[in-house]
C-alpha cells in the first residue's frame, strides 16, 4: 500500500470535470484507490464521494493505492492532482523500473 499526502494544484480543485477525469483514470488500474481529506475517505472511483470531499485548489489530500499496479496508479494520479495532467510515457518509465 502506498499513501501520499498531496497539495492539490488543480484550478478550482476537483470540480465535476476534474473529478470525472480522475475517476476515468482511476478505473484503468487494478489497485484499490482511496482519496481522503480531513479524515473523510472515499473510493477513487466514486463520483459522489469525491465531490462530497469538496477538494479545492490548495487543499491537502491523502491518496492511497493498494494493489498490483499501486506504484503506477499512485504516480499518475498524484501527477494529475498536483500538475493537472497525466503522461502515458510516465507509465512506461514506471513499468520499466518495476521490471528492472
UniProtKB/TrEMBL annotation:
InterPro entries: HPr, HPr-like, HPr-like_sf. One of its GO terms (biological process) is phosphoenolpyruvate-dependent sugar phosphotransferase system. Pfam families: PTS-HPr (PF00381). PROSITE patterns: PTS_HPR_DOM. The keyword Cytoplasm applies. Keywords: Cytoplasm, Phosphotransferase system. GO terms for cellular component: cytoplasm. It is found in: Cytoplasm. Residues 1-90 form the HPr domain. This is Catabolite repression HPr-like protein/phosphocarrier protein. It comes from Evansella caseinilytica.
Amino acid at each position: 500500500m502506498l499513501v501520499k499526502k498531496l497539495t492539490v494544484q488543480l484550478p478550482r480543485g476537483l470540480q465535476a470535470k476534474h473529478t470525472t477525469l480522475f475517476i476515468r483514470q482511476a478505473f484503468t488500474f487494478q489497485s484499490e484507490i482511496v482519496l481522503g481529506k480531513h479524515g473523510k475517505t472515499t473510493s477513487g472511483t466514486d463520483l459522489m464521494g469525491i465531490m462530497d470531499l469538496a477538494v479545492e485548489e490548495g487543499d491537502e489530500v491523502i491518496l492511497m493505492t493498494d494493489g498490483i499496479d499501486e506504484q503506477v496508479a499512485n504516480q499518475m494520479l498524484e501527477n494529475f492532482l498536483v500538475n493537472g495532467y497525466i503522461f502515458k510515457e510516465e507509465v512506461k518509465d514506471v513499468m520499466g523500473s518495476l521490471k528492472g
